[in-house]
């Protein structure tokens, strides 16, 4: 009977330890090395480094003395700070620091106190609302607290969950009747798209606002046509603006300008915040002029001949399905601290294909970057947040290194004018497999092409 009681007591003690309740280990039960490791775990929430373990073994002053010493070192405050950040997503207040140091609370006890607090529940509610637009279910909260899941880990899990994708798709569908584009999903998970806030990802409310603004753009469309020599220019399909600059000066925010087939020479022009400029295709709309776009503007389906696309200061300008060729300067560059999106462009014969400055965090996918003096300066490459599935070839100085399906091969252009690629080009069916390809003609291989014509009606078909 006595042995049975002792066995039950031992099991209970193990359960308490596993649940994180603090107890002082017996010096008889643990070796000197184990005691040192235990003290570091309790006070600094980590194992000792090898040199620390070695020094303490040589000069061991006892378990309690070591705990008392570690409780006073500067790293103790850092350890407490990290625990609060992990479980409440905030730094501890000064009085909380002082309490834990005065009482010598071990890390596991601090964690348990925070997990059991109402503030932990509030932090989880905010996290779920921000990412999934809903509150966590009771069983989710129970699991996360029982498993002591850090908020940063759960944040990453939710951002990469299928439900996050469904949430983005639902918001896109409600406003635009389509799923979220893959580059939008990447953008939403990497930065805030709100002009009035900052963050490492977009809240559900910010994604909703983004698509509401995109819907406004789709309903507010103005036209430019260099063949219109009439006396009336109001941007309507029948009376389009004759010049791009007139449209840029007159259209309201959250509008789209469609530049019809033709050649336009108007000098450098700025694109206002929240205005998109679309051509009718990179093989139809040709600009011998520079566009300087700002935040929440998309430049698409245009051939920039001998000129650059400049993106300035705004948070999330987008350039897609453009040809940028034979400029004496950078093909596409960005000055600012935001997240420019550069997807499915063909950038050929420029000084630098891409250049990024300041503290920008670019997203770069599915581009052909070929025969430039530089594909990208090394300092710009270091700023890129996410990139992949680009074709890089024939640049005098080449800094792009392999990542996520990068292709190093001749793209085999049909000509030097429109820069379509030939059937059998390594750019065909080589883009990011998560990007939409359904606008490409059959046979399309079930995968987007790299370059300006990827996912367009004029994409090069696959080999049959």
SSE topology sketch:
Layout (H helix, E strand, L loop, with lengths): L1 H17 L13 H13 L5 H9 L4 H10 L1 H15 L5 H10 L3 H9 L2 H15 L5 H9 L4 H9 L2 H15 L5 H9 L13 H16 L1 E4 L19 H7 L4 E5 L2 E3 L4 E3 L3 E5 L5 E3 L3 E3 L4 E3 L2 E3 L3 E4 L5 E3 L2 E3 L4 E6 L5 E3 L2 E3 L3 E6 L5 E3 L2 E3 L7 H4 L4 E3 L2 E3 L71
Parallel strand pairs: 1-2, 2-5, 3-6, 4-7, 5-8, 6-9, 7-10, 8-11, 9-12, 10-13, 11-14, 12-15, 13-16, 14-17, 15-18, 17-19, 18-20
Shape: elongated
Low-confidence stretches: 1-25
Main sheet summary: 8 strands, parallel
* DSSP summary: helix tally: 15
The order of strands across the largest sheet is 1-2-5-8-11-14-17-19
Give a verbal description of the structure:
By secondary structure, the chain is an alpha/beta fold. It has helices at residues 2-18, 32-44, 50-58, 63-72, 74-88, 94-103, 107-115, 118-132, 138-146, 151-159, 162-176, 182-190, 204-219, 244-250, 378-381; strands at residues 221-224, 255-259, 262-264, 269-271, 275-279, 285-287, 291-293, 298-300, 303-305, 309-312, 318-320, 323-325, 330-335, 341-343, 346-348, 352-357, 363-365, 368-370, 386-388, 391-393. It has three domains: 2-120, no CATH class; 125-213, no CATH class; 232-464. The chain starts with a helix and ends in a 71-residue tail after the last strand.
């Amino acid at each position: 009977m006595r042995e049975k009681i002792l066995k039950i007591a031992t099991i209970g003690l193990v359960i308490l330890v596993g649940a994180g309740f603090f107890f002082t280990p017996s010096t008889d039960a643990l070796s000197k090395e184990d005691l040192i490791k235990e003290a570091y775990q309790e006070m600094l929430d980590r194992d000792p480094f090898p040199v620390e373990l070695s020094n303490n073994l040589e000069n061991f002053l006892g378990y309690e003395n070591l705990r008392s010493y570690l409780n006073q070192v500067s790293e103790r405050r850092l350890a407490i700070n990290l625990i609060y950040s992990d479980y409440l997503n905030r730094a501890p207040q000064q009085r909380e620091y002082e309490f834990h140091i005065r009482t010598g609370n071990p890390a596991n006890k601090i964690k348990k106190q925070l997990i059991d607090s109402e503030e932990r529940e509030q932090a989880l509610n905010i996290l779920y609302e921000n990412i999934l637009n809903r509150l966590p279910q009771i069983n989710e909260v129970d699991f996360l607290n029982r498993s002591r899941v850090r908020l940063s880990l759960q944040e990453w899990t939710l951002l990469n969950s299928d439900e996050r994708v469904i949430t983005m798709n639902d918001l896109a569908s409600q406003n635009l009747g389509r799923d979220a584009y893959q580059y939008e999903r990447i953008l939403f998970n990497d930065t805030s798209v709100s002009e009035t806030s900052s963050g490492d990802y977009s809240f559900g409310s910010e994604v909703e606002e983004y698509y509401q603004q995109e819907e406004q753009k789709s309903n507010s469309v103005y036209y430019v046509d260099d063949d219109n020599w009439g006396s009336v220019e109001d941007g309507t399909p029948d009376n389009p603006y004759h010049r791009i600059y007139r449209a840029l000066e007159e259209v309201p925010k959250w509008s789209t300008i469609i530049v019809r087939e033709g050649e336009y020479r108007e000098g450098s022009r700025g694109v206002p915040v929240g205005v998109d400029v679309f051509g009718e295709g990179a093989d139809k709309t040709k600009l011998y002029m520079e566009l300087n776009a700002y935040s929440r503007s998309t430049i698409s389906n245009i051939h920039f001949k001998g000129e650059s696309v400049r993106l300035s200061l705004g948070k999330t300008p987008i350039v897609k399905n453009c040809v940028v060729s034979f400029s004496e300067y950078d093909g596409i560059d960005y000055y600012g601290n935001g997240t420019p999106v550069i997807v499915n462009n063909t950038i050929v014969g420029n000084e630098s294909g891409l250049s990024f400055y300041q503290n920008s965090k670019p997203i770069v996918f599915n581009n052909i970057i070929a025969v430039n003096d530089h594909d990208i300066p090394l300092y710009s490459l270091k700023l890129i947040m996410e990139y992949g599935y680009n074709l890089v070839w024939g640049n005098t100085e080449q800094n792009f290194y392999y990542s996520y399906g990068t292709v190093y091969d001749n793209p085999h252009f049909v000509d030097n004018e429109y820069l379509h690629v030939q059937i059998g080009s390594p750019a065909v069916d080589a883009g990011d497999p998560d990007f939409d390809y359904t606008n490409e003609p059959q046979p399309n291989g079930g995968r987007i092409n790299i370059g300006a014509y990827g996912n367009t009606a004029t994409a090069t078909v696959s080999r049959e």
